[in-house]
Design brief:
The chain is of the alpha/beta class. The chain is 39% helix and 18% strand. Helix 13 crosses helix 16 and helix 24 packs parallel to helix 26. The longest helix is centred in the last third of the chain and has 21 residues.
Length: 778
Amino acid sequence: MRILIVIHAYPPASIGGSELYAEVLARALAAQGDVVHVVTRESDRMRPEYGVRAETRGAVTIHWINNLFASVTDFADSYESPRIAAVARRIVDEFRPDVAHVHHLTCLSTRIVHELAARRVPIVFTLHDYWLLCHRGQLLTPSLQVCDGPDAAGCGVCLGATGGAGRGAFSASAALHVVESHLPSAAAAGLRRAATRVAAAVLPERDTRPAERARLAHMTDVMSRVTQFLAPSISIRDRFVRAGVPEARIDHQPYGIDVGAFDRARDSPRARNAGEPLRVGFIGSLMVSKGPAILLDAAAMLSEGRVAVDVFGAHTAYHGDDSYRAQLEPKLSRAGVRWHGPLPHERLADTLATLDALVVPSIWPENSPFVALEAIAAGVPVVASRIGGLPEIVRDGVNGRLFEPGSAADLTRVLGELTSGDRLELLRRGAGRSAGELTTIDTDVRTTRALYARLVESGPQAKGAHEPAISTTVPAAGATRSSRLAAVVLNYRQPDDTVIAVRSLLASNRAIDDLIVVDNGANDEALRARLAKMRAPVRYLATGANLGFPGGMNVGIRAALEHGAGRVLLVNSDVFVPPDCVAALERALAQAPNGGIAGPVVYARSAPDTIASIGLRYDPRTGRIRHESADSPPGEARHLVPSGCLLLVERRVFETIGVLDEAYFLSFEDLDFCLRAMRAGFGVVCSPDARVLHEGGATIRDDSADRLYYAARNHLRFARDSAPHVTAARRSVRTASIIALNVAHALRSRGGSLPARLGAVTRGTRDYFNGTFGEIDR
């Protein structure tokens, strides 16, 4: 399999638990023959922002994306950066993974998930912390209180000034990054701390609620696109289920570790002589959420000589706040405390062998910390806070002890118990037995790879997989703020026409920034290959099933919006777009009051001098719809609804009224969309200066029974939805008129037999009254 692993940092640049786990998993998968690529982030002041460098370690290829946050424009840009997503998109398109395993996206971009989902790549996501729910990642407020998440309390206090900062503040921050890049590390850090203090003092307070709501809505959308979550602890699994993740899409899968690496430490435990101090250790980042000061205060409460503390780790600022260092450093100098600095992971087993117990005094709801698992593997008892997933590792009185989170007094009591009697020896034996119950990395890899294989085999169209990629929602308003122009061409069994449409768009005088072809059905490798040979990049998205015109087009619309499109051009595959058409449509939008949608005059492709339509006229009294032709008065096109064979739509229209209504499946969805936009206050115009050539009936003939079925059913639905507040008498007259119009059309048509045509109208009318919509039920 071709496996893509996404992680926010990677060894040796970062040696946290999730980073080490991702590296071990990548190596193990590559060792058994899988092709493994890793996408990760680095912060190198000597390299260009968003620059990529590739590194090969053994059989694993690592793509490092440089992100100094020097170009962030606002708060949303800090977590869903479209620029990082664009870089990742190129990597994904070149690698073409069968499956992706995401471990963390902070410092990268959440839109990597959208890129993968748009390409129908199954996504496995391991929940290492709460970052998808909590911007700070640990459900810990600045006042160090545990929060139950955004559904229980507002996030404004946690977002702080950053959440409400305007573009000016972020521009200033970007400028500061430029200055920092020319300073030594220590001086740069000092400048940043000073600037942070100044900003806190002078920046006006802003309402962070919009940013809070936007982030939560965005993360909810991101989570909905993940195929399967993996939760290393029951605690974190239950928290995400409460947040709305369906239980069927989140498996409890404990971390696997290399238990064998700790065999020697477990088989040769430290021999503690009578009267010798209890030697306990802290291993991890010296940050406030990890609680090392709690251990140091607890040890100080015991009489001198009863406990010796070894501290391994480096000072780490907590979300930019480095004030904990000043509180901690005097305590690290106390008698009986030895501070060793950071501990290389390869020395962990030997270090654990020197301890009587490991202390994990975290004050945040830990998930399943590796250091606790590895201590158990080494046969070392663990003394831990009774919080998060720690009680799932530490069985109180069996392989360790639990104490109240944040309570140095309660920890003092527990440590005092271990300094006397045989309690420590009993716990050590319990830890040794528990080591045999841990999940090994080999078992973890087999289980994870079996999940990959199952998802790849079942395909993204399996029930429940990637459903949000074809849902009826769009990203939250303001999710991206680019003015890029995207074009979406919808193909359904007409590859030759589609190629013609794409070539005409590539020749446009107004350059298309993002050209997307949605294949509304089976993956057409021949079409994909033809598009790959185009002179400019064309994105190919296969839906895997016929979603109907609105469903297929919505897949492309979402992909365009997720890549930052400010305007989206919706193009039928049987349309030829002249070079000056798109620019003329943009001028029409600019000239129209609150312009939202613009369409062209339509000429017949088979007879290029014949105008097929300058727009549609709809009579809400009778339900009659007419294509106006060249005989209409001059300038009349400006007052009609454009034909749906090609529409240029402003992003804000989608953000206001949503996407195309997929219940129509075929026909009337374009007219419904335009009238919804008009009711929302947008200008919808036909431009007499823009023209296209349209074949019409390429995928389904105008006089076919299916076309007549959809026309009858959807015509009635459209009339109902476009003018719902009419009297019963008028509604009855309109309904009778629409049925008569469709029967007359069936009588005049020539395709198929008359009974078949009339039967299609009858079935369409029946299904409308029965409330049956979507694809025709055969």
